[in-house]
């Protein structure tokens, strides 16, 4: 039995916070793919994307994901992996996750995501827009979500809407869905 649980979804849906909390509740291990990447490239994802571009970042993401899966499959314990929002853009990543464990997708309405990412205020390289403020960010979110939606649906075993849920409620839903 494979014990890997991948948490995927668009930015701002709660993958990192809920994945970490789900692992705590279930008494299992947790990893954040973006943190794993940053440790390997020795810089922030924003810095890396600025210097080398999105395609080079996606190469790193695929390499780190494959390595992490290979390492974790050798261990005999449950492990929740919170993935970056664009991990599904590469077919090999989608295939690897589907073949290696359970894939749980978090989703929310674009307006909720916009509010969350602007409130968190981290640097989000793919949301960089010149002028336009909140409206431009929301339009960019909607465009990216529309492009990615079929890939999330194709990859996920189960979908959890996070719009009106607290981090704890999402975490408990992940634990229930994963059966851990």
Can you walk me through this structure?
The chain has 180 residues and is of the alpha/beta class. The protein contains 8 helices and 5 strands. The protein has helices spanning 15-26, 33-41, 45-52, 54-73, 91-100, 110-120, 133-155, 167-178; strands spanning 4-9, 29-32, 79-82, 101-107, 158-161. The chain is globular and about 45 Å long.
Q: What is Rg?
A: 16 Å
Amino-to-carboxy terminus distance: 13 Å
CATH superfamily: P-loop containing nucleotide triphosphate hydrolases
Shape: globular
* Number of strand segments: 5
Strand order of the largest sheet: 2-3-1-4-5
CATH topology: Rossmann fold
Q: What is the overall number of helices?
A: 8
> What is the CATH class?
Alpha Beta
Strand content: 5-15%
CATH architecture: 3-Layer(aba) Sandwich
What descriptive keywords fit this protein?
single chain; 180 residues; alpha/beta; Rossmann fold; five-stranded parallel sheet; 8 helices; 58% helix; 14% strand
Question: Helices, strands, pairings?
Answer:
Blueprint: E1 4-9, H1 15-26, E2 29-32, H2 33-41, H3 45-52, H4 54-73, E3 79-82, H5 91-100, E4 101-107, H6 110-120, H7 133-155, E5 158-161, H8 167-178
Parallel strand pairs: 1-3, 1-4, 2-3, 4-5
Helix pairs in contact: 1-8, 2-4, 3-4, 4-5, 6-7
Could you provide a short overview of the structure?
The protein contains eight helices and five strands; from the N terminus they run βαβαααβαβααβα.
């Amino acid at each position: 039995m494979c014990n890997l649980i991948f948490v995927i979804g668009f930015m701002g849906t709660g993958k990192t916070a809920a994945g970490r909390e789900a692992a705590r509740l279930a008494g299992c291990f947790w990893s954040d793919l973006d943190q794993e990447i940053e440790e390997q490239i020795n810089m922030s994802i924003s810095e890396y994307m600025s210097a080398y571009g999105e395609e080079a970042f996606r190469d790193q993401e695929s390499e780190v994901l494959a390595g992490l899966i290979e390492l974790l499959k050798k261990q005999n314990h449950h492990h929740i992996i919170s993935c970056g929002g664009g991990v599904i853009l590469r077919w090999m990543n989608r295939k690897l996750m589907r073949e290696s464990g359970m894939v749980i997708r978090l989703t929310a309405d674009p307006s909720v995501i916009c509010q969350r990412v602007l409130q968190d205020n981290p640097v989000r390289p793919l949301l960089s827009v010149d002028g336009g403020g909140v409206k431009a960010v929301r339009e960019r979110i909607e465009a990216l979500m529309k492009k990615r939606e079929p890939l999330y649906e194709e990859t996920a075993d189960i979908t959890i809407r996070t719009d009106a849920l607290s981090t704890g409620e999402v975490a408990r839903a992940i634990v229930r869905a994963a059966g851990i």
